Amino acid sequence: MPTPFNQSVVEEFRANGGKVGGPFEGVELLLLTTTGAKSGKEHTTPLGFVRDGDLLLIVGSNLGAPRHPDWYHNVLAHPSVRVELGVEEFQAVAVPAEGERRDLLFERVVAAEPGYADYQERTTRLLPVVALERPAHEAGIPTEAGNFAEKMTQVHLWLRGQLRHVRDETDAYFAALAAHQGPEAPPVPGLGLRIRQHCLAFCDALAFHHTSEDAHLFPVMAGHHPELRDTFERLAEEHREVARVQGGLVALLAGIGDADPEAFRTELARMSAELTRHLDFEEEALLPILARLPWPPGPPAGTGE
């Protein structure tokens, strides 16, 4: 539950285009909305931040308390977050920095906001530095849709692009690992938080997309096209199979930084094969029908609107 003070800051922020008074007079804040690690409910927290190029850096300082703030535990479980910055609102992936990169980014944060050094001195825990990465628009993905087919194509292109991004990061990890093999090589490290966070964000988006199709799109279409009953049964089964592979990926990534890289690579290859096959079939079967339905949907017939 948000504290009354935090809630008042959130309300003032939204009412005044990102500006707040009181102790935060003149301070640039953002609102971070996360999904609860245990509750699954949304939580919005006002936070200070530091810009680093295209990144927004936030620190899990908790004012130097001995425990990480709740929002940090939330982003480890659900990396997809919503950011409000002034009057702008966008989705991002929260990626905690590791090792030397964390130390470098913390130095940049302290250079801009020296108070974070005081918070670090108050506690023995290492204050996490989290980069909010705004997903870049994939080349070739239309920015607008005029019908349901174009909207489905947008979503599918985005999912394919995010999966490709995770695969590319994983391939780069294995290439770097191979370059350091030998009798004096260190033990095989975990995959790292960057790959973990991007993969979990992809899995969350995929689950939301398929759940929405199962609950809304497919039942409506099946009611109008009973001749496609076998098609919808196949799509539903493919959703279940993709969900099983997705569950395997999420289980591997349950620990922080200790996933078995080879097992992850195997599951990721399974996901790529299953999802590509599913999306190809879904597009072949449904896009011709969806092209006749306008996007965004209009009001129901007979409402007079």
TrEMBL record:
Q: What positions does the domain Hemerythrin-like occupy?
A: 150-290
* InterPro entries (alphabetical): F420H2_quin_Rdtase, Hemerythrin-like, Split_barrel_FMN-bd
What taxonomic ancestry is recorded? Bacteria, Bacillati, Actinomycetota, Actinomycetes, Kitasatosporales
Q: Tell me the NCBIfam families matching this sequence.
A: hi_GC_TIGR00026 (TIGR00026)
* A Gene Ontology cellular-component term: plasma membrane
Record-level Gene Ontology MF annotations:
coenzyme F420 binding; oxidoreductase activity
Reactions catalysed, semicolon-separated, are: oxidized coenzyme F420-(gamma-L-Glu)(n) + a quinol + H(+) = reduced coenzyme F420-(gamma-L-Glu)(n) + a quinone
UniProt name for this protein: Cation-binding protein
To which protein family does this belong?
Belongs to the F420H(2)-dependent quinone reductase family.
Recorded source organism is: Streptomyces alfalfae
